[in-house]
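=== RUN LOG ===
request id: a7f3
mode: sequence -> structure
chains: 1
length: 217
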Amino acid sequence: NHKLFGESRSSKTFRPKKNIPEGSHQYELLKHAEATLGSGNLRQAVMLPEGEDLNEWIAVNTVDFFNQINMLYGTITEFCTETSCSVMSAGPRYEYHWADGTNIKKPIKCSAPKYIDYLMTWVQDQLDDETLFPSKIGVPFPKNFMSVAKTILKRLFRVYAHIYHQHFDSVMQLQEEAHLNTSFKHFIFFVQEFSLIDRRELSPLQDLIEKLGSKDR
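=== RESULT ===
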């Protein structure tokens, strides 16, 4: 019945996958990441491969997480509506208001689908910006790359948090929970490895994060 869900999806919420050019060094890195993920040891899989550039490793993984979240959110978009999710929240204690610093400077309160649309569009614009995410060999990453990557990951986390808090029933109905958990666990281990998201920002899913981590000690 996956087909059914796919067809009713609005094309606007489901963004095209951001592709890493085949044959490029970043593509090789992505392949390496996929291969080590297959080994089942996630703590090891997220570590910087020997001799690799940290910025590039973070860039490749950020693109990959964007694609994963895009796909995961795409499976539940029909349940995330202006009516069901009139605010962007992660449980009763956390509510997010959108601002990107350029088009919307003062944070605005909006529905979850609108917030996630703003967020994913904003992330895609960053990923498509060659000065921020250079895809050509030898083009250096900008000095502010790390802070941009941190902001992207902090915002992508909010989509996971919203899905877990508001849509986990739908995820289970679709039998996507293993997929969601694996993706989130990979994401969390990655941001923990390089201290990319402030602990405070992670608090909406703190219990889950501890649970995922304790299975691996």
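=== NOTES ===
Residues 109 and 119 are 13 Å apart (CA to CA).
The chain is about 55% helix and 0% strand.
=== END ===
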